[in-house]
Every structure is written in C-alpha cells, then in structure tokens.
Amino acid sequence: MTSSSETPNLAAETPDALGAYPRLTPVQLQTLSEVGTTRPVSEGEVLARAGEALGSFFVVLEGRVMVHDGDPDLPSEEELGREGPVAADAQIEIHGPGRFVGDIGLLEGQASFATIAALERGSVLEVPIPALEQIVAGDPLLGDVILRAYLIRRSMAIGFGSGLRIVGSRFSPETRRLLDFAARNRIPHRLLDLERDPAAEAIVRRLGLDVGDVPVVIIGGSRILRNPSIAEVSQALGLRRSRPPTTSDVLVVGAGPAGLAATVYAASDGFSVVLADAVATGGQAARSARIENYLGFPSGISGAELAERATLQVGKFGATLFAPSTAERLTSDGGALEVRFEDGTIISPRAVVVASGMEYNRLAAANLDRFEYTSVYYAATVNEARECGTDPVVVVGGGNSAGQAAVFLAGTATRVHLIVREADLAESMSRYLIAQVEARPRISVHRRTEVVEATGATHLESVVVEHRPSGRREEIATRYLFVFIGSRPATSWLGSDIERDERGYLLTGTGTASPDSRRQPLETSVPGVFAIGDARSGSVKRMSAAIGEGASVVKMVNDYLETGGSRF
Predict the structure, then answer these.
(1) At how many degrees (to 10) do helices 140-160 and 26-33 cross?
(2) Integer Cα distance of 295 and 331 in angstroms
C-alpha cells in the first residue's frame, strides 16, 4: 500500500510483500466464475464508494483498478495551510488481473473504507457476497487465500490509520470513548487531534462545528456524525444491522473466547443462538498484540485475528450477533428467563450462558481519577502504540498482560517503564515473556515499586512511583499510563439471586450452596443459567481453558433443554 503523499506510479501494481494481495490461479478463478458474472468496466467507473457497504466481491480480469482510501471532501492543502493534508495521507492500491479487492469488512457486512474504481477499460468478475461466504466457509484452499489476505489487509489498514477519521481532543473522554470503540471493534481509524493537528482545526472551521458537535466521526470522507453515540457509529458502520429475535434456544452474554466458542458449537449443533456483547467480539484476548502460547500456532497469532476468524464462524452457523449491547438485568420468573438490555431490547431465551468475563481493576493512585478517561489505558495494541508514538510510557503490572504490553510498546516508544510490585518477575510472568522483557534495552523494570500519584494540569504529565522497601520516590515523565493489575468479574447485571463466592465469581455445579443432583457442572444456582470463562468461580484464567468451557457447556445446555421442553 502506498501513501498518496509519495505520488505513486499509477502504472505499477502495489507490491505484495506481506501476502495481502495474492494473485488467484486459473483454477481458483474458474471456481469463482461458476458463481459470479463477468462484467465490463469503463475508465473511471466506480465499483464501490467509501462509506457504503460493498454489494459484491470483485476480481480483476482485465485492466487495473485503484483502491483509494481518501477523504475527498476534507479541506484542500491550501485550506489547511500546511504541507501534507489529510487527503495526502490517503492510501492507494493498484491491482491488475488475478487480484481481488476488499477486506474483512466485506464478509461482516461493514461499510467500505475505500473507494474502488477502474483505472482503465477492462473487466471484472463480480461475485455475490452470499456466494463468496459459501466459498470461504466451504473451500479450504481458496477460502483461506481470501480470508488470510483480508485479515492482513485489515491489520495493515489499522496500522496505517486508514478508515474512520475521528476529530476531537485526545484529552476528551468522549473522544477516548470513540477511539476505544473503534479499537475494540478492530475498525481502522485515525485521530485528528484538535490539540496539535492543524487539519482537525481546519475541518472544524470548514464544517462550521461548535463545541457541542465535537468529537466528530467522518466516514468515507463525506458522512459526518456530530458527537455521535456508540450506537449511531455502530449503525453507520454496519456493525449492528438489525435487532435480535425476542426468543432463542440460547442467549450467550459476552463475546470473548468462551462466549464465542459456546456460540459456534451451539449454533453448529442446530440451536438458535444470540450472542451479545457490550462492545465487540474478542474480549480481552482481542487486545493482545500477539498470543504466543496458544496450541496450534507456533509462530503466534494476534488476538484480533483470532477474534475475526471466530466472528465469521458465528455468522457461518447462523447465530445472531447483537453488539454493541449492554446486558442490564436478568430475571427468572417461575423458571422463565428474561434478559433486558440497556437499549430496551428484551430477549427470552430457554437457557442463558454467562460469559461476560472480567472488568479491569483501576489503579488506586492519588489524582489519577482526573486522567482516567484521557491518559490511562487498559490495552496495548497498534492503535495505542500509534497514539503514543515515540513518547515514553509507563506500564503497571507484573503478569503476562503487562509483559506483553511492555514488549510491544518497546517497538515504538523510546522508553518503557515497567512498574512491578513483586521482587521477581518470575512470581507472576511466564518465562518466555521475562526473556523478551530482559532482551529489550528500552524497557526499564522497576521492581518492588508502585505508582502512588499522578500529576499534570489538563492532562497527565508524570507519575510518582515509590520503592516500597526504601520509601524512595521517583517522578517519571509520561503522558501515557498502561494498567494491567488484574480484574474482577463483570457480573453486576445478574443481580443478587445467583450465588457467588467471596470474591464475586459465579458458583456452579456442586459448588453452589444448595446442591442439586440435576444441576450441571457449569450451571449456576439459577436453573438454565450457565457460567463459563473468567466470570466462573474456580475457572482457569487462560484463553484455551475458556474456549474449552465454551465447548463443554453446549452439551450441558442440551441436556437441560431436553428436560425443559422443545426448542423454539
């Protein structure tokens, strides 16, 4: 992919250095032609516009097409008064015969983030999306070529900062809310910061925006959302396309690894399943830049890729994804289950699987609450790394999440301060990660140390750390604080009727206060309500264990439903 500020040679195809732009073989083209139609195109003909959903999958047969991630309606270079306008940051791809266009959003019903047009007269193979979905799901060779390319393209787009433009202040909680939503949903985006980016100020002037309109989300260069809600952005992007059914065999609440596994296995067994999540699929695992100890992936896999692949499986087996959607209350009236959501939606399932996972613990440091929504982060992905740039960062925590974050951020930040309460990293961090931390000269490990205070005026400027044995304090300059100090079960929406242990985790099976021989091992004290993954008392807090519980709970749900009536 080439930046338009580099004035690309439009006669040359975009190089395929990472496997993102494979050329299909004659056999693969023949397979697609059996479900598609050959269509002539004229010079300049637009096949898809940024901001609109792609209606078809296109393969170039003759001629060349250009994929342009630009913002044609944003200010010109003269209006911005500086070199390198937003439009000059657009990404351009050129593709010739045998190549296909689009990215993973095409398979998920999302709006396109790029305009696709023919550079010259030629022809394309047009394949309907449903036919493409069948190929991706049913043809292991061709399907994997397309899926792998799409996943790499999405990863590249996120790294380039393509896609959405979010105009606002990086110190605004509302802006951070939108940035977090985009990152959690793996939506390519870029912040145009009112604090330091002249392009942002120029857009505000040109559009005649006032304080109440900011932050602004720009989709496809022309669709403007002023101070939008998460639901409005989700609707505009095609993430939440319809309301879920009011009844189902199974409602899974929480779309982390456990919830995704339960949904895929239940749906593949023929159950009607609704999967709900407050933000996005993937859970905490999707925030991992690299998962290196997951069985079957010797070179590791990103949490985002794992989440995208599982999300496609959810759709493949006919489950309904309802996200973003925050579960507000569970009731069980005479055995009839009902879950009410924040937007007023009510679902009455025959069984509920609670996979809502954990909520991050917040750091108890003086004055830190002032910067909670502007300078404190609970994930370290390419989005956060781009926002921090080369500035020094502070990472708090001694577990694997903190170690992974420190290693990842050390790739861009000039200094990473890892603050650890323990005397030895081996007390809570895997050995392979310790080796990586110690091999990075940019990482400084502060052992037996805690953050005790945050300082700054309008934004975080530094943190004060204290070495516990000596009481010695040190001030570390930073605008970015990453916190990985554990979490607590996200089960407040369940109310007090479901039994919990002393730490708030859900009790299941024989662990409940009122054992019942009919109760399944993963069933809570409320009949028909099951708990899996991190929210369950006694669970192993590992991604592989969560996936295993997601698979196991389906048999228990089936046994419960067989004794409780016919399916919907």
Answers:
(1) 100
(2) 38
H-only helix segments in 372-485: 382-388, 400-409, 431-439
Give the pLDDT of residue 553. Answer: 97
Q: What is the mean pLDDT of the chain?
A: 89
Q: Which amino acid is at 229?
A: S
52, burial (CB in 10 Å: exposed 0-12, middle 13-18, buried 19+): middle
Q: Which of 188, 189, 187, 216 lies closest to 201, judged by CA?
A: 216
Residue 343: which residues within 8 A CB-CB, separation 6 or more? 231, 325, 326
Among residues 196, 200, 228, which one has the least CA distance to residue 75? 200
For 13, phi then psi, to 5°, come to -70, 150
The two three-digit tokens of residue 97, written as one number: 């015969």
pTM of the model: 0.82
From residue 286, give the alpha-carbon distance in Å to each of 186, 256, 314, 342, 382. Answer: 9, 8, 16, 24, 12
CA angle 398, 421, 490 (to 5 degrees): 60
Residue range 173-206, pLDDT digits in tens: 899 899 999 999 999 999 999 988 888 888 888 8
Q: What are phi and psi of 548, to 5 degrees?
A: -60, -40
**DSSP, residue by residue, 139-187:** -HHHHHHHHHHHHHHHHHHHHHT-SEEEEE-TT-HHHHHHHHHHHHTT-
Beta bridge partners of 352: 251, 529
530, 354 in Cβ contact below 8 A?
Answer: yes
Alpha carbon separation from 510 to 489, 523, 530, 555, 558 (Å, rounded): 20, 9, 13, 18, 19
547-550: Cβ within 8 A, 24+ apart: 547/257, 547/258, 547/260, 547/261, 548/261, 549/258, 549/261, 549/262, 549/522, 550/257, 550/258, 550/259, 550/260, 550/261, 550/262, 550/263, 550/264, 550/265, 550/355
Instruction: Determine the pLDDT at residue 515.
Output: 66
Q: What is the amino acid identity at position 287?
A: R
Sites in the chain below the pLDDT cut of 50? 4-8, 71-88, 565-568
Omega of the bond prior to 173 within 30 degrees of 0, cis?
no
Q: State the Cα–Cα distance between residues 508 and 13, nearest whole angstrom.
A: 58
